[in-house]
Design a protein that fits this description.
Elements lengths: L1 E6 L2 H11 L6 E6 L9 E2 L7 H10 L4 E4 L2 H5 L2 H7 L4 E2 L7 H4 L1 H11 L6 E4 L2 H11 L3 E5 L8 E4 L2 H13 L10 E5 L5 E9 L3 E3 L4 E2 L2 E3 L3 E4 L4 E4 L6 H21 L5 E11 L2 E8 L6 H5 L7 H10 L14 E8 L11 E2 L2 H4 L5 E5 L2 E4 L2 E4 L3 E8 L3 H12 L7 E2 L8
Parallel strand pairs: 1-2, 1-4, 2-3, 4-5
Antiparallel strand pairs: 6-9, 7-8, 7-9, 10-11, 10-16, 12-15, 13-14, 15-18, 16-17, 18-23, 18-24, 19-22, 20-23, 21-22
Helix pairs in contact: 6-9, 7-8
Length: about 425
């Protein structure tokens, strides 16, 4: 098969790394890719948002399957356009991608399907939103309704912080159209977990769990980011709790989407909070998580490609996957200044030494190459994943690898995988 991966981050590098090992894969492309992806695939100069260009390339190169990493092309209808042109694609159509494109839509679906989640209200008027916050008090959560690259959420510990977040979205238009409406939610306490499942429109095949660390600072402090590290499996997500989340959150959502005439096909990612009353949904994503994918795929012992094909073809009913029992730890190396104005352009050395341990994989998230030299070219730049007999061993291997990387403009959290 001839496969095209869409995207340029660490998640897409991990997907390409897994797909390249499939005996079914004859040729692998990535658009636009990155220097790490170039080790697995032929990179082509097409932006992830260039739908006409991607469709034309897929037709010209006789692509058998397009695997879409980021959420924005899914929301923009890339799958719809590819399938209309007769090209098989992995991911939801635009209508089903609304589960991530609109937090309000997702919350309304949860309310209709009795899916456990935080109490909420939707607002387009700043004064009404502030009155609601003052009435409910803090802590409280303010979310931009649309896609905001993982940065549209404020967990406000004071009313003043909540009001500032409301102004940023509705008055200052910090998130553009994505923040034209906001969702205000009650604050839920408890550890977080990420539960991903392959869905073929009807059938659900859960993947192993992970826990993402969103805050930029150690001890889960500072602003939210796209993710500073991940651990798989998620601590605290026991088999019983996981089964409950599948039964009360994942499967009802899949059934509700099918009943609305927008069946979901792809990866449904449920961000959970493990409350004392049981798991509750924080929000849905409609694609592989980042950096969860970098922690999950090194644990996958089965061939990923047939699983993706089964999703697209509606044939997951009797499908299964085998997983390495060893846990994994992924640590994100980011450029100083992230999640704000990240410092780009610093040279990176030592990756070969860092990846010498066979239990370590390094995925590129934001790099560029100039001849033989590698430079940082993004906020999140590298993802270092390690397997180990225990979480502690995986953590040690990951940080030992990081110690061999030379990059003066980078930083990372030192507590990923810690107790």
């Amino acid at each position: 098969m001839r496969i095209l991966v869409i995207g340029s981050g660490g998640r897409e590098h991990a997907l390409a790394w897994a797909l390249a090992s499939s005996p079914l894969c004859d040729k692998l492309y990535a658009a636009p890719g990155n220097p790490g992806l170039a080790q697995e695939a032929e990179c082509v100069a097409l932006a992830a948002g260039d739908t006409p260009g991607i469709v034309a390339f897929a037709l010209r190169e006789h692509i058998d399957l397009v695997v879409i990493g980021p959420e924005a092309p899914l929301v923009a209808g890339l799958v719809d356009q590819l399938e209309a042109a007769g090209i098989a694609a992995f991911g939801p159509v635009a209508a089903a991608a609304r589960l991530e494109a609109s937090k309000g839509f997702a919350k309304d679906l949860c309310a209709a399907a009795n899916i456990p989640t935080a109490a909420y209200r939707r607002f387009t008027d700043a004064l009404a939103a502030k009155a609601y916050v003052r009435n409910h008090g803090a802590p409280i959560v303010i979310k931009a309704d649309g896609l905001a690259a993982g940065k549209g959420v404020t967990v406000a510990t004071t009313v003043a912080t909540a009001e500032a977040a409301i102004d940023s979205a509705l008055i200052d238009h910090q998130f553009g159209a994505a923040g034209a409406e906001i969702v205000i939610e009650e604050f839920l306490a408890g550890p977080e977990a990420s539960l991903l499942a392959l869905v073929d429109g009807i059938n659900v095949l859960p993947l192993v769990s992970a826990q993402d660390h969103k805050r930029v600072g150690e001890g889960d402090t500072g602003p939210n980011t796209g993710g500073m590290g991940a651990v798989s499996p998620a601590p605290g997500l026991t088999p019983a709790i996981e089964a409950g989340a599948i039964a009360t959150i994942i499967k009802p959502a899949v059934a509700a989407m099918a009943a609305r005439g927008m069946p979901f096909k792809g990866v449904l990612y449920a961000g959970l909070i493990l409350t004392q009353a049981g798991p509750k949904l924080i929000e849905f994503n409609v694609r592989f998580g980042d950096p969860e994918t970098q922690a999950l795929l090194p644990r996958l012992k089965s061939d990923l490609l047939p699983a993706l094909l089964a999703v697209r073809d509606g044939d997951l009913k009797d499908f299964d996957l085998r997983w390495d029992t060893r846990p994994s730890v992924t640590v994100v190396l980011a450029a100083k200044g992230y999640p704000g104005d990240a410092r780009r352009g610093g040279e990176i050395k030592g990756l070969d030494r860092a990846a010498a341990d066979p239990a370590v994989q390094i995925f590129h998230a934001g790099t560029r190459r100039d001849g033989a030299r590698l430079f940082a070219d993004g906020g999140r730049v590298l993802d270092v994943t390690a397997l180990g007999a225990t979480v502690a061993e995986a953590r040690r291997r990951a940080y030992d690898a990081i110690a061999k990387i030379e990059w003066s403009d980078g930083f990372y959290r030192r507590d990923i995988g810690g107790s």
